[in-house]
Amino acid sequence: MTVSGATLVLAAPSPAAAPAQAPAPAPAPGPGRTPGPYRRLFALPGTRAFTAGNLIARLPMGMFGISAVMMIAGQRGSYALAGAVTATGLAATALAAPWTARLIDRYGQARIAVPATLVAALGSLSLIVCVRTGAPAWTLFASYAATATTPNIGGMSRARWTHLLRDSPAAHHTAMSFEQAADELCFLLGPVLAAFLCTAVFPEAGTLAGAALFLTGMLVFTAQRSTEPPATGASPRHGSPLRALAPLLALFGCLGLVFGSMEVTSIAYLDAAGLGAGSGLVLALQAAGSCVAGLLYGILRPRTLRTCVGALAVLIALPWAAAAAGSVPALAGALLLAGMATAPTMVTAMSRVHALTPAGRLNEGMTLAVTAIFAGIAAGSATAGLTVDHLGPTTSYLLPAAAAVAAPAAVAAASAGRLIRRAGDRSRVVRAAAARDPQ
Length: 439
Known about the structure:
The chain has helices at 37-41, 47-58, 64-76, 79-107, 109-133, 137-145, 153-164, 169-201, 205-222, 242-272, 279-297, 305-315, 318-324, 328-339, 342-356, 362-391, 393-396, 398-415, 429-435; strands spanning 2-4, 7-9. By secondary structure, the protein is mainly alpha-helical.
């Protein structure tokens, strides 16, 4: 045991024959010399179990929106109503989710997430009953708003990885890339499953199956207590992360505008093209591109946020060009390419959230980011629904393109005057990883 400056160093005893000198540090393994970064992640005890529950619960995240749109539009004949209902639910989630996340940070994931999930599932069931029975339109808004208690399963999973990998920034980057790829996988499979269930079974089947999967997955996820981050158990020492994250929330809002307007516009465009259940396969291509890009990004050096957002602004314009040309195959390819810029942007932006969020508030910080996305999705869904009804789906593709163009401006505004600063807790290793990604 030695003391160097203000650092206490614990060293293993050297063999008797060893020379009296400090041992040379082990060489840092390069990407080509250490294959299998994802395999090493899941070698950690308990990670496979909580990931299994996480994936089951996360799959419905790609089902709920499209299931509600197809169910309501099919029964009521209005994309404007469908978009407004889903927008209302997302707006309600934007208000309720940070409070749910704060309770999860304070009292633990299992204690809060399970009852919150039950309430959200009841809201989905109420929506099904109201649509099925022809109840007044206001009941659809009220039912979908009740799903606002849905816990942020992606944030809870990321919080577990951050807790387990707090001493390994490189592994943490890989884990965050995997989580983003998992998000995209669910938005790859979710729309396909939802479109099939809503068209081939009955219109409410997508929402019903989504609620059942979400509840089942959440029960499996929260049962894995060994990997659960410790609850703070008291009032947080630090203030809300909202102030530190505020410069980034505009960027997440722009991303939400892209996602919400793109989904409603694509559903309407493909429906007008007569694809029916096959529309889910085309919609899934955007998520497929993002999923592949996310997995690759996890083994590459992180790029700057400006670079990722700039690529997104360029590629999101491709679906509008393809739709204007009237080619469904071209639109499918454009969605695939557009999706490839999504995962790197989200992973890089989320690394900023990790760097800025005070200790003990990580789930709340990530939920604020997701809340901003939900707010953007709500605005994008509602605006796209109105645009589709009045101007047609081709013109509506200008909405996600415009939102993507606004994203670099949001990054520039966040960078101006050094608004993005690291939080006071400098002990977290994941912050060091974010510090290597200058704006």
